[in-house]
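tool=predict chain=A
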Amino acid sequence: MSAAADAQRAGRRVEEVLERLAAGGDRQACEAAEELVRVLMEFYGAGLARILERLGEGSVRPLLDDELVASLLSLHDLHPEDVRTRIGRALEAAGDPLELIGFDEETGVLRVRSGAAASGCGCSATAGPDQQSVEDALACFAPEVTRVELAPAEAPQPALLQISTRPHSPAQVR
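tool=predict ok
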């Protein structure tokens, strides 16, 4: 299992525990648990910030390709790259060639199109990107993305065939 999947599983587990506490009806216990999660997040965020300070920008670059590290840096708003650069990394990590159509920072909706090569008949040569792999990569590199909309691959435009008349030549009579 990848580090990204482990991180996602841990996040879901925290949510499940908090929901279980809330369902138990003990409001004070639920509030204390939520506060504990917030305090731990602040603590680990401060630790990550200190690590980044001490490493310096050049030493951080190799860490940015790691899904778990990228996810943690993004979660704590410490990632040195802007969201569009991180979206590009995520699309590369998803495996299938994807073209960025647009990203709405207000809603978090990302629109992409499959960049899969198409055959001469206009049908896609590959099945295209897997929605889950795209969403998993985005969760690590760009958690600001709340929804992914996959547009179908564009069919290649047929080449324009120019047909013209041949120049007139005098008829040969025999």
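Residues 77 and 127 are 35 Å apart (CA to CA). The mean pLDDT is 79.
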